Amino acid sequence: MLPEEASGRLKEIYDDIIEKRGKLADVHKIQSLRPESIIKHMDLYLEIMFSKSELSRSERELMAVVVSVNNGCEYCILHHSEALNHYWKDHDRIELFVSDFGNAALNEREKLLCDFAKKLTCSPGQFNNDSSVNKLKEKGLNDSAILDATLVVSYFNFVNRVVLALGVETNDVERQGYKF
């Protein structure tokens, strides 16, 4: 439901999100039949992506893009590459990263976080025997940072599936104008 059509509790929720984030994303509009789920979704998003963490905001957006690319979720790729570019300020680097993160100019920690995100997204069943967690620890990430990375990856796998299942689409206007 569009914000101008909303009333009652849904309008309150929409207004609150617009105040916090600058605008209302289509991923939230698609949940209008369950207004309280929008609140829970937004709370989870803000906690995972904006709370204090050993991971920087750009590292979290980096993993969001990797998950979304591997799931083929164009909506989240566009939204979160836009967010990542808020930190990188380099559209060419973003384009290369989206097309092939393995060849993008990343530091070792970023590469390990991207590998972690890809492996947990593409092969969750084999992850228990994977060395990705140990590699992150060897690079200096503590248990809290590894938990945060796992939460980011898991959250975006969830959101990608909601977006893909319900056919949420994006465009240049819709994906811009958010508070990062």
Q: How does this structure look, described?
A:
By secondary structure, the chain is an all-alpha fold. It has two domains: 3-50; 57-157, AhpD-like, CATH 1.20.1290.10. Helices cover 66% and strands 0% of the residues. It contains nine helices and no strands. Helix 3 runs antiparallel to helix 9, helix 4 (57-71) packs parallel to helix 7 and helix 5 (74-88) packs across helix 6. The protein is globular and about 50 Å long.
Second-tier CATH architecture of the largest domain: Up-down Bundle
Could you spell the SSE succession in H and E letters? HHHHHHHHH
Q: Helix share of residues?
A: 55-70%
**β-strand amount:** under 5%
- The helix count comes to 9
Overall 3D geometry? Answer: globular
What fold name goes in the CATH topology slot of the largest domain?
AhpD-like
